[in-house]
Design a protein that fits this description.
Helices cover 37% and strands 12% of the residues. With 293 residues, it is of the alpha/beta class. It has 2 domains: 100 residues, 3-Layer(aba) Sandwich (Rossmann fold); 160 residues, 3-Layer(aba) Sandwich (Rossmann fold). It has a 5-stranded mixed beta sheet, with helices on both faces. It has a two-stranded antiparallel ribbon with strand order 1-2. A two-stranded parallel ribbon has the order 3-4. Strand 3, helix 3 and strand 4 form a beta-alpha-beta unit.
Length: 293
Amino acid sequence: MVFALGRGQELVGVTHECDFPPDVCRIPKVTRSLIPASASSGEIDAQVSAVLQNEGSLYELDLKLLESLKPDLILTQRLCDVCAVSYDRVQKAAESLPSHPRVMNLEPRSVKDVFESIRVVAEAIGSEPAADALLRSLDRRVAAVREATKHASRPRVFCLEWVDPPYCGGHWMKELVEAAGGQDDLAVAHRPSCRIEWKRVLEFAPEVMVLTCCGFDLRRTEQEGEILAKFEGALSLPAFRAGRVFATDASHFFSRPGPRLVDSLEILAHLIHPELITAPAIANAYSILARMS
């Protein structure tokens, strides 16, 4: 958001997950994960539950580095403890810093909330004109997708937030599917994603399946597709039979509540209605998985 608002040069610290735009790579990382990235998705799920229960947070803050950076404002979120340092730890750390930074918490649960978060951040850093221009552009793009798909058929779509065990989409994902011209009856709107019985997926019989695995890039999500294909009855689902099972780079798109959520919508709309929506000019955003079967 800060880079999109034209103030990236003022960022003094970011998390270990921050990797866009490329200039962010030069900025010191103030967090690290307690979960090894090499673990399988099933192992990650189990370790996340255990660490959250015992430690209260999946991430550590580098307090010494944070103190040396002397921030005036810390942007954080308590929408999901799996995705960031817990808000309480951030607040406690801020209170200990000599620079006495303001802590701004963002908790967007919908597309509208994400856009509002952009405006809130803009007001905090004095970039209101940039926010106006950015939000007008994002609104136009969302409206264009809705207009293109409003008379289209509504195929059954299932977006998997996680594969092992299966999680349905949460927060803004149901909105994105509907705006993209699909129907995801398994997603939960404006609430965290949650585990879902595989039996429900088989009963829903999705015609399109999109793996939007939280925090995983395209290559890692493609590996999750291999796990999915081994689930009982998976290859008999309409989506697999039609070759309409897709992996996406959810780490860069669907998982992140920022400006690129609109890129995510355009990607999703193309996957659901390729005859109506041209593929966005984004390299390595998605791939087709069903053909591997």
